[in-house]
Fold this protein.
Amino acid sequence: MAVEASVATFGGVLLCTGPNATGVCIHSVYPMMSCVDLEPPLRHNTATFAPDGEAFVCYPYSAGCDGICTSPEGCTKGPISFYSPDKFDLSISGWNSFIESFECRSNESSLPRVS
Ligand SMILES: *[C@@H]1O[C@H](CO)[C@@H](O)[C@H](O)[C@H]1NC(C)=O
Ligand SMILES: *[C@@H]1O[C@H](CO)[C@@H](O)[C@H](O)[C@H]1NC(C)=O
């Protein structure tokens, strides 16, 4: 229902250099399952990471999209959703300065992969 009605805008994320939607902000709609490299000034500098209220989550990565990740945890903080308490201040965890790229997945495809 809500998903079908909002296909054209599904996947919006607000990114800002400062906490609580301050500083330089960009709001865009991003495709699911597709890595996005952050550009300056947001690269390693995103305190607000606020997905819109649809059924999707986003995984911030501490490497670029084509970077090699050697951490067993996958170099991601994720997942962050509309309901995540830290979406307006990633600096609480230090991830405002770690983040270099991110990927969003609709809730249907966000279940952890069995490996
Ligand atoms: C962001 O806003 C919340 C709620 O108003 C406030 O408690 C918090 O201190 C603010 N954070 C910063 C870093 O300004
Ligand atoms: C999507 O999944 C996330 C993570 O499980 C959850 O926190 C969020 O509430 C879900 N969103 C919706 C709209 O169902």
Q: What stands out?
A: Residues 19-20, 88-89 surround 2-acetamido-2-deoxy-beta-D-glucopyranose (ligand 1) (CB under 6 Å). The mean pLDDT is 88.
